[in-house]
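Why do we care about 3D structure at all? Because function follows from shape, and shape follows, mostly, from sequence. That is the central idea of this module. The next example makes it concrete: a single protein chain, its amino acid sequence, and then its structure expressed as tokens.
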Amino acid sequence: MEVLKHCKEYPLSQYYHTVPHSLNLQDVSEVTTTPKYSMHLIEPDFKMNEYKRQLLLRNYETGKSGAVLIIDIISIWKQTLKETRFENIKYWYVNSKEISTIEGLICFLGRVNANPIMALNKECLIRHGTNPANCSLDGIIIDNLSYLNTSDDFKSFNILKNMISNIQKAFGCWYISTSLDLEFSQGIEHSFYPKPIAPYTNFTAFPSNYLNDINIVMIRDSATHSKVIKK
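And the structure:
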């Protein structure tokens, strides 16, 4: 016991770190060999499509203990996830009034970051094949951020990206988000966004400060294909 009195304690976090999960983007020939941990997909509409289905299928590692958190702001994933090809995928599914605002989404992610077991267990509408106590968070999908238009997007989306970055550092998860293309912002919605900068100007009016912190930005040009506009 005398020996123990002279021992110094060190936090366990000094000796272990999360292993980051990179995205599987092997179908995109333009992508460099550098691992990508976050992706933003620009789309022409709010509809479900085969490309998004394949993104989930490719980036879920079957047989692993981890699961994907699907934040379905526009209510298009619930029916899709009932398809047979998704039956072996572990996921938490969130679709609530709270996440229909940028403030609510940030608050929800804050609770996930602070206490994932409690947040995922109590607040997810569907927990398919998951037990938060022994299931790691391998990936996050947020679809679709264009639904969250506010007059102060620049500041709010900066807070959102910082929150996502904190979660990625804590859990090592990949991250995919979506928004709508430039045609969406040609009407009244245009007044909600700060002016974007290159290389996004010709594709979207979505806040450039958010996109600048994303590893790769892509635009979907069909139901099954996309092209890179930032890598």
